Amino acid sequence: MSCQKYKRLTVMWYATLLWIFGFVWGAIVFMVPQLKNVPSISHVSKYPLISFPLLIFYVVALHFLTRLYLKDIGHRAWEGLKFGATILLLNIILDAAVYVILFKGQDYFSFLSIWVAYVLFIVIPWLTGKNLERRSAS
């Protein structure tokens, strides 16, 4: 298996793991009535106890996974951007397939917290790659 194909599969695996973690965390919150019944924040989050802990998790996990992925790669800023774009695309596809089509959650994409997570999927890997590239140059 070529190195390029291995790296592509690694990104897909990381993206899937991030999505599964979010799905499992959401399922846990839905199983506990006290957590599920926390009121939504209009236009920001339908389920704040799902979205806000996930946003914090995504910042930490994306930084760690990006560093792991980029350790042996040149052009780290560009590769970090591609890494983040792949994670973003796979998560949008999985979100649409499961939450919108399967669960009929027509308002899923109307909350700010979802879009903040999507921005994090691009920005954190890109900035991490940029930082690693700058460090290796000096």
Present the secondary structure layout.
Elements (H helix, E strand, L loop, with lengths): L2 H29 L1 H4 L11 H23 L5 H27 L9 H26 L1
Helix pairs in contact: 1-3, 1-4, 3-5, 4-5
| Number of discrete domains | 1
Uncertain spans, ≥5 residues at pLDDT below 50? none
Q: Which band does the percent of strand residues land in?
A: under 5%
User: What's the number of helices?
Assistant: 5
Main pleated-sheet profile:
none
Q: List SSEs in N-to-C order.
A: HHHHH
- Alpha-beta content class: mainly alpha
Mean pLDDT: 92
Please estimate the helix content.
over 70%
Radius of gyration: 16 Å
Number of strands: 0
How far the N terminus sits from the C terminus, by CA atoms, comes to: 33 Å
Principal-axes shape call: elongated
